[in-house]
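User: Thanks for the earlier help. One more: ATP-binding cassette domain-containing protein. Can you show the sequence and predicted structure together?

Assistant: Of course, both are below.
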Amino acid sequence: MQARGLTKHFGAVEAVRGIDLDVSRGEVFGFLGPNGAGKSSAMRMIACVSPRSAGTLQVLGLDPDVDGPAIRARIGVVPQLDNLDAELSVRQNLEIYARYFGIPRVRAREKAAELLEFAQLTDRANSPVEPLSGGMKRRLTIARSLVNEPELLLLDEPTTGLDPQARHLLWDRLYRLKQRGVTQLITTHYMDEAEQLCDRLVVMDGGLIVAEGAPADLIARYSTREVVELRFAPGAPRPGAAELDGVAERVEELPDRLLLYAADGEAALGAVHRAGVRPQASLVRRSSLEDVFLRLTGRTLVE
């Protein structure tokens, strides 16, 4: 998949402001960004359900403006909200969806059985959809997106609202798809999910790409190896960033704590204690993609 100057307008609103993208075959590629960053608009253009306003876009080597039906026949889409048919059984949701792609009835039944096993739903094949847990419904939605054996899979926040066990099971299934060579484009608000799944990703903000690279490379580029969190009791005296100058590479002041970004967190914490600072609690942790995300897009809530 390749895009150059990809742009999307909604009247006077410029949701995507001329971005460049290159996604290789078999790659898991992530879109991160706050609400309104342009992630979903970009994904909808790639899925051939929303025309681009400007720029060039090739999906599977084809132009969505000309070859939309041919592209849609070769991709799978997992929407943010499950849109399963509640009046059908688990198996019927797969078999009937397969028929939309012109898959013969016998092959549709075979494919449904394969996907039920892949999604670990074989024992629920004849169950109605409505009583299924959120994790089961999500696995069924992903299974349904695979009935046409897509070369490219688009997943919009695939694990939102799921418990940790269901999330990890879905991660395992997505990893198996990667092993099969299926290209995946993922939007997510979970930074740990992006670190686990994505080979490369972009961080979008205000319709622009503000950073691009592998998760580990982005952490190395925009953060430090470790972060020290210092928490203070309500109303207790606490130092400002200027008072800790030289203790860490960067100090960030938050309402409930101080964050010290340093190559060696334990050494930074020792320097804090030697300076006479006594936090109520302290924590040394590995720097994460969330630190990068918040540095690039800010901590202000976007509605």
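User: Great, one quick takeaway?

Assistant: Residues 2-213 form a domain with the Rossmann fold fold (CATH 3.40.50.300).
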